[in-house]
Design a protein that fits this description.
The protein is mainly α. The protein has helices at about 5-25, 30-50, 50-60, 65-120. The protein contains 4 helices and no strands.
């Protein structure tokens, strides 16, 4: 085995172990757990069996397996960015609604205080 292969294999195992550790510590939400575990396992499989990427590239008609890797990686990242953009938009709307509700409640509290002060006089 070449040293490059061993470094790649150890790196893949470390990535998968890191993902599992983040899940164990509950620092990575359950919402994304399956996605990241699939990424880690896929990385490990392609690292453990380097001929698999060559075969897959040949089947899909891609000249260089690395090009296929970059293409799939870019598609994955675009998907993640699109999903995170959707999440941010949803959270912005929720935050705006909560701020509006809080402002209404603050106004009602002020009005009740004024009413109480007037009746106390």
């Amino acid at each position: 085995m070449s040293s490059t292969y061993l470094v790649a294999l150890v790196g893949s195992l470390l990535v998968l172990a890191g993902i599992v550790e983040l899940l164990r510590r509950r620092q990575l939400g359950e919402k994304y757990a399956v996605l990241w575990l699939a990424v880690g396992v896929t990385l490990l499989v392609f690292t453990a069996f380097p001929g698999l990427s060559i075969w897959l590239a040949r089947v899909l008609g891609v000249q260089v397996p690395t090009n296929l890797l970059f293409f799939v990686g870019i598609l994955f990242l675009v998907g993640v960015v699109l999903h995170l953009s959707w999440e941010v938009s949803r959270l912005e709307n929720e935050t705006r609604k909560l701020a509006e509700d809080q402002a209404i409640l603050r106004l009602e509290v002020e009005q009740l205080r004024e009413k109480r002060e007037k009746t106390a006089e």
